[in-house]
Amino acid sequence: AINTGESYISKAVGTLGPSIRGKVPVFYNGETVGLISTGYLISDVKDIIGEYVYIFKTVIMILLLIGVISAVLIAKGLKKAIFGLEPHEIASMLSERNTIIETIHEGILAVDNDKNIRFANGAAVSILENNKSRSIVGQNLEHIFPKFDLQSVFENGKAILNYEIFMKRNLIANVNPILHKKNIMGAVISFRPKDELYELGKKLSYVRQYTETLRAKTHDYSNKLHTIAGLLQTNNYDEALNFVLQEYSDYSEILGIVNSTIKDSIVASLILGKFNYAEEHKVSLEIDENSMLSKVPANIDSYKLVDILGNILDNAIEAASSSLDKKVKISFTDFGDDIVFDIEDSGKGIKDGLYSSIFEKGYSTKENYGRGLGLHIVKRRLNDLRGQISCSRSDLGGAAFTIIIPKK
């Protein structure tokens, strides 16, 4: 170090054992004037390093233990938050949930406590006639339903059932609060057009009517069988035979008229059912002998046509049942480019000046709750089929409806 003027570190074995030595020259006015030398035994250096390594390992172990404990606690908390589900189970449930929500026909909206819409399914968008897909998400509920008050739901957590929302297309809504640990986080609103619910009720009513008709028929035929049995037991064979032939003749006549004039099985089934419905109301239902209907073209929805005819015939039969003549007449033709139906009844008819009003939603000449949607639905179905309907005074004294549906 003195000769070269450089410092260096070396290992050597001294009297105390192996050591590490460091030598540094001392300069004065650019000249080497001395040397500083120091050294540590290698064993002492290892002891010092060992102490630091021990401390470092201890700190690492403590941090690792804290990390493991924290990870376990976080995992348990997360598991609890996601109800003990695995990631693939969550993905599967989310897929199922989306499929279910988009499959149901009811509109569904989810709102937060500020009434901001957080979710809307496809049915909700369709029912609300929103052409911008999910753009209603993020809007305030008051922009969609201005007069819909949800305050009781948010304050008391009490559900609202069968609430009618008045708008362009009236809705029936149910509201249920979203609860998390007894805290109200928002609400779910499910709704469906009122006229659709009316249609379902009408179909159920038809089923009940047919059931009652069948029950009445069963009772009627039971009485007739007892009559036949009595005639046979008293040896009045000719009278029993005439009784059977008369019954067969009445049914065959109706069946023959329907089969000869209507070639469409769905419409024919409806008309046969209405004969029974009319008989139950003690109303005479007649088909004009010059009527003729071929099979309904494929582009015309037969079920919508049946819905139209069913509503008009039901109204006509009910109206005629309260009259003296108790008569309903139906005629139809598909000659030319249109299918035309004329339905007349002997009821009290419709007042002059109200012919255009009867097709408005809610209008009814009847006082029963829930009336006033039948003819509105008829009008909607006719719009779907590009058809027309008109009303006038019938020669029978009641109302006369003319229905025109284009074939193409």
Automatic annotation (TrEMBL):
Keyword hit for Cell division: no
Keyword check for Transmembrane helix: yes
BP-aspect Gene Ontology terms: phosphorelay signal transduction system
Transmembrane segments: 54-75
PROSITE patterns recorded: HIS_KIN (PS50109)
SMART domains: HATPase_c, PAS
GO cellular component, one term: plasma membrane
Gene3D superfamilies linked to this entry: 1.10.287.130, Histidine kinase-like ATPase, C-terminal domain, PAS domain
Protein name: histidine kinase
Organism: Flexistipes sinusarabici
